[in-house]
Amino acid sequence: MVLASVCQDLWYSKLRYALEYGVQYGQVSKLAEPHDCDWMTAPLGKKNCHYEPEVHSAFAAIREGKPMVTYDRGKTWSDNTNMEQTAVWITWQRVAE
To answer: What is this structure's pTM?
Structure first.
């Protein structure tokens, strides 16, 4: 059980996503995983849920002389009017079992 937790922490680490998305480590944000589905949280017992990571990204670039941003790894581009910076962030989605 402990080994599985350590392996999961390594698999969903900021370092992994920095390497996968080709960004600097500091450009990756990871929210803490919620623990309200854990067996030991009140009330004790199985909660019939768990959390899955969701990875989101924004890549900023100058294209055709204009600041642009993509949220789908370059498939589509839009005007970068919000001054988006290249970033990757990991959030957690609650999944019912």
So the answer is: 0.72
The SS3 assignment for 20 reads helix
Is residue 53 reached through a cis peptide bond, with omega within 30 degrees of 0 on the bond before it? no
Q: From the CB of residue 69, how many other CB atoms can be counted at a distance below 10 Å?
A: 19
Which residue type sits at 6?
A: V
Parallel, antiparallel, or unpaired: how do β-strands 87-96 and 28-30 relate?
A: parallel
| Torsion, CA 5, CA 10, CA 13, CA 17, rounded to 10 | -130
Q: Provide the number of structural domains found in the chain.
A: 1
**Domain span at 76:** 2-96
The SS3 assignment for 8 reads: helix
**pLDDT tens track for 29-85:** 999 989 889 888 888 888 899 999 999 999 999 888 889 999 998 899 999 888 778
